[in-house]
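Anyone up for a design puzzle?
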């Protein structure tokens, strides 16, 4: 099995997805891989009779793009290398779009955070991470802890010094 060269990290701008992106960044550094952070936003289901896009849809897309930029800037300020991560946006059902983007983009690995929902909420709405894990044609690494509790993979030269 070859090492991942392209890693997809679905993000919802939560601390959990920030932790997943930080972890993926460490993996990418060790594996010399590229990361795409994907945010899937729900498009307003509005359309004018003449087929034009209403301003609310344009606004929602712009808001998602601004949120992605801010999210990545905050992580870069915390030390994540800017040259390893690209932001991507998609609209639609989150699990479905993550799976489509993963397949179309030729990714080797999906790294994503899991939210700590209660059993009842999980039973009623399910989990995007669970749906992606069940249906993905590539490996999926899910993280359930904040980043300060995750065991980070160390670069080889740092490991040798220990």
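Challenge accepted. My sequence:
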């Amino acid at each position: 099995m070859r090492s991942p060269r392209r890693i997809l990290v679905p993000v919802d701008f939560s601390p959990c997805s920030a932790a997943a992106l930080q972890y993926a960044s460490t993996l990418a550094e060790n594996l010399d891989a590229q990361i795409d952070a994907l945010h899937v936003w729900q498009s307003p289901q509005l359309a004018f009779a003449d087929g034009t896009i209403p301003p609310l849809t344009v606004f929602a897309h712009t808001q998602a793009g601004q949120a992605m930029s801010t999210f990545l800037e905050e992580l870069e300020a915390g030390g994540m290398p800017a040259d390893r991560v690209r932001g991507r946006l998609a609209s639609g059902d989150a699990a479905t779009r993550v799976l489509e983007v993963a397949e179309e983009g030729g990714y080797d690995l999906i790294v994503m955070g899991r939210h700590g929902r209660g059993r009842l909420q999980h039973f009623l709405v399910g989990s995007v991470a669970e749906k992606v894990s069940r249906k993905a044609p590539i490996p999926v690494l899910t993280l359930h802890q904040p980043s300060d509790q995750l065991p980070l993979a160390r670069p080889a030269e740092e490991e040798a010094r220990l």
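A detail worth pointing out: The radius of gyration is 17 Å.
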